[in-house]
Amino acid sequence: MSDYRDVNLAHWNERAAAHAASPGYPVAQLASDPAALSDVVAFDRPLLGSLADQRGIHLQCHIGTDTVSLTRLGATMTGLDFSDKSLYEARAVAAKAGADVRFVQADVYDAVAAAGDGYDFVYTGVGALCWLPDIARWARVVAALLRPGGRLFVREGHPMLWALDDERLDALVVKYPYFERAEPTVFVSDGSYVETDIDLRGSTTHEWNHGLGEIITALLDAGLTVTGLVEHRSVPWEALPGRMSLRPDGEWVLDEDPDRLPLTYTLQAIKTVISYG
Ligand SMILES: C[S@@+](CC[C@H](N)C(=O)[O-])C[C@H]1O[C@@H](n2cnc3c(N)ncnc32)[C@H](O)[C@@H]1O
């Protein structure tokens, strides 16, 4: 079997151009309206607060629509992704939007060597952590990227959502692991999570879930202090097709009793400042 990175890289490279052309990503809106934000960053904004004069890195930035949006909140951004085709689209998105973003091609685990350190904040999520086999290693990378006092901001699919059978329409059924395992869960899927006319078939991915306790413990072990954890009843993609409705803000919610399940969470943590004497 090839390395998980080769398998997943092929999947993402195949999707980058389709995503840039899809109405599911706000490429046209960012280009035509200098004040526009992606729905994802607009959702995050109340918890993000001002990013004026801050230097940030967006891990797994994909085609850069959220990265560009973060520059519109005042940040100087680096976007990092291992997919050359995603970064090709990201550079085009930033150029059309008039945004000055540095894009770096690297695996997340090599982020410090590739993109440097001393960042005021690390931003990531919306389908990012599931591609990484080892959450403790990820947390150490985040800690190494941040300056002392710097902030991690993650908004991610909830591990309980990732554990559900997304093909069952009659009930919420747990099918996949909640906890991190050494072996990946292997999926073969057609299409994409956004609308596209491009024929995408039979793509294999290797993915991992990480429990909420595992994520928080990994961050604490890496020297971060958790400052906020908010669970949400909505998710920015149609995670359980056939059972969700789209809100005007671009978020999907369960049709039936949304209080049953958190669909995403926002986790914030600060790199602890060590004071001597
Ligand atoms: C669903 S996208 C991230 C979501 C992003 N917020 C967006 O714009 O939708 C996942 C991204 O992770 C990247 N990725 C997956 N595994 C990676 C790895 N090991 N290192 C760096 N990037 C990775 C993929 O290339 C892809 O662009």
Number of domains: 1
Name the average pLDDT.
95
Tell me the total number of β-strands.
12
User: So, CATH architecture?
Assistant: 3-Layer(aba) Sandwich
- Provide the β-strand percentage band: 25-35%
Unreliable residue runs = none
Quick one: biggest sheet?
Answer: 7 strands, mixed
CATH superfamily: Vaccinia Virus protein VP39
- Biggest sheet: strands side by side, in what order? 3-2-1-4-5-12-8
Query: How many alpha or pi helices?
Result: 9
Under the CATH scheme, which class?
A: Alpha Beta
Protein described:
By secondary structure, this protein is of the alpha/beta class. The protein has a single domain (4-271), classed as Rossmann fold (3-Layer(aba) Sandwich), CATH 3.40.50.150. It contains 9 helices and 12 strands. The protein has helices spanning 4-20, 27-32, 39-48, 65-71, 84-97, 111-115, 135-145, 159-162, 212-221, and strands at 55-59, 76-81, 101-105, 119-125, 146-157, 185-189, 203-207, 224-232, 234-235, 244-246, 252-254, 264-271. The strands form 3 sheets. The chain has a 7-stranded mixed beta sheet, with helices on both faces. A 3-stranded antiparallel beta sheet has the order 9-11-10, with no helix packed on it. α1 (4-20) packs parallel to α5 (84-97). The longest helix is centred in the first third of the chain and has 17 residues, at 4-20. The chain is globular. It starts with a helix and ends in a 6-residue tail after the last strand. 39% of the residues are buried. The mean pLDDT is 95. Bound molecules: S-adenosylmethionine. S-adenosylmethionine binds next to α1 and α4.
